[in-house]
Give the backbone structure.
Amino acid sequence: MNKEGILSRLREENVEKLETLWREADNVRAAHVGDAVHLRGLIEISNVCNRRCAYCGLRADNRSIGRYRMTTEEIMLCVHDAVDYGYGTVVLQSGEDEGITGSWMSELIRRIKAETGLAVTLSLGERAGEELLAWRKAGADRYLIRFETSNRKLYELIHHRKGARPSDRLAILENLRTMGYETGSGVMIGIPGQTYEDLARDIILFRELDLDMIGVGPYLPHPETPLGKNDGDFPAAGVEQVPNTELMTYKVIALSRLACPEANIPSTTALATVNRQEGRELGLQRGANVVMPNLTPPEYRVLYEIYPGKACIHETAGACASCLNMRIISINRRTGTGPGGRRKRALTHMGQNLNVNERG
Ligand code: SAH
Ligand code: SF4
């Protein structure tokens, strides 16, 4: 699939041709990662953020939300919930919170590893290289950091430098890979100024980066952010502007699956937000193979407002677990067991294609 091929499918409006795209993506998903839907329990451990990404409700300048940071004990209760619900992985996510110190996090990772058999995924923003390395050594398996757009100009417009350090999520991804992390990245769909060409290049970059996990979701404007207010500093929508729609999200999920057959691809909460009834299921039927049930205690969950109107914000962890299990069964899929790391195909010296290296 070259760029022209991706572009024409991103622009596709013909219903039958779209059905063909969904079918192809679903077949590739079944052939390469199977019918299991892996469950990653999400714990939003802090909504404190020292960055100012132009699109995000957690940005430091947003004074309209109350801030929290969970304690180790509170987090461990959620981790044990993950074990009880049969999840294979916990994802610890937060704003880029300097109050989460390198050593505190290392200690937490060691404790999770000592008390459970769970895989640990981190999504804590652009942290320093030495911290990322220390967390890997403490036992963290995976790291998620979306590069958001491959258009460098647009990237710089929406990501501010922090002190002397310019934002560079692609450099961090490379670094994470050399440290032995499974790496996850992705983009928002329909950021103001994002063109079809940009989005096609994003998908090609997913393949070039050889990502283990690819998370994509629609951009949802937050009124307390510069991009959400669209205060004139950002590009006006042109004819080449990608819409931030549900349909475009399915197209990107499906094309990501075709570009990266072995990757773990979640059907995201942002997608469930734009179609509460069946967004999750349709994502899973059009290329995705992962869901991330939320384990965050409800009193904190409501404060983790990356974008407004987020789906599942008032649910309890137990309600999320049974809701997602039912949704998976309803589409004739099964829940995965174990950590559900990426299955990589590798060539043996005989030149045969074998499924080896079940990482994580
Ligand atoms: N601080 C970490 C993790 C939290 S943000 C980080 O930045 O990586 C996780 C993701 O939420 C971001 O990468 C972005 O893709 C998504 N996000 C932020 N604001 C959003 C918005 N307004 N609409 C949709 N997704 C958004
Ligand atoms: Fe902070 Fe992440 Fe939001 Fe950027 S995207 S403001 S780093 S929480």
